Amino acid sequence: MRVFIALFLLFLIEGTWAAIFSWHYMTPFLALTLIGLMYISLYGRFESAFGFGLVFGLLYDIVYTDLLGIYLFTFSLIPLLVSFVLKYIGENFFSVVITFTFMILVYSFTIYSVMAAIGGTTMTMQTLLVEQIPGTLFVNAIAIAVLYYPMTRYVATRPVAKRG
User: Fold this and answer.
1) Fewer CB within 10 Å, N- or C-terminus of the chain?
2) DSSP for 96-132?
3) Where are the domains of the chain?
4) How far apart are CA 135 and CA 98, in angstroms?
5) Helix 2-21 and helix 133-155: axis angle, to 10°?
6) Per-residue pLDDT tens digits for 54-74
7) Which residues of the chain are modeled with pLDDT < 50?
8) Does the keyword Protein biosynthesis apply (predicted)?
9) Is 149 exposed, middle or buried (0-12, 13-18, 19+ CB in 10 A)?
10) CA 113 to CA 119: how far, in whole Å?
11) Whose CA is closest to 139, among 18, 22, 31, 11?
């Protein structure tokens, strides 16, 4: 229950950030909920991260899009990828920050590709690469680094065997 509350607070902070700072495509997209899900999949139980990914992905689809399934799919898939990648690389501060930041890049391209395929975005690829992605990666890398210590302590209540 406390992990759900933490993810819901991250969701609210992320929604508030988007509401306050959304003036144009230059606005960096802060993916706090996805970062929280990645920490849960890495330091907690993967089943919990998958379930929370389904719940919060559906919540994102209902609140932010007209099409169900885009965020539901990505919020369930990306924590799985993170846990498998870091199982083989090793877990320390720098590998976590680099892997999570790369997954934010994958997440951004996935959302853009799906939205462009169905005609749900007016953003061009050049706008995405030049205006959106650099700020998004920078802001999320800072958020990943800031959340590293609290999330590793908050989520890892007991050791569990890694999947793989």
Assistant:
1) N
2) HHHHHHHHHHHHHHHHHHHHHHHT-----HHHIIIII
3) 2-19+31-155
4) 16
5) 160
6) 999 999 999 888 888 889 999
7) none
8) no
9) exposed
10) 10
11) 31
**Residue 24 Cα distances to 28, 126, 164, angstroms:** 9, 14, 41
pLDDT of residue 67: 80
* Tokens of residue 25, six digits: 């495509």
CB atoms within 10 A of CB 88: 7
State the pLDDT at residue 117: 85
Q: Which residues contact 29 (CB under 8 A, 6 or more apart)?
A: 18, 108, 132, 136, 139, 140
Give the angle subtended at the CA of 30 by the CAs of 29 and 35, to the nearest 5°. Answer: 135
pTM of the model: 0.87
User: Which position has the token pair 């919990």?
Assistant: 48
Q: Which string of b and e fits 34-71 if b means at least 16 CB within 10 Å?
A: bbbbbbbbbbbbbebbbebbebbbbbbbeeebeeeebb
- Residue 55 to residue 10: CA distance in whole angstroms: 14
Residues 136 and 104 sit within 8 Å (Cβ to Cβ): yes
Position 157, amino acid: T
What does R_g of the chain's alpha carbons equal in angstroms? 15
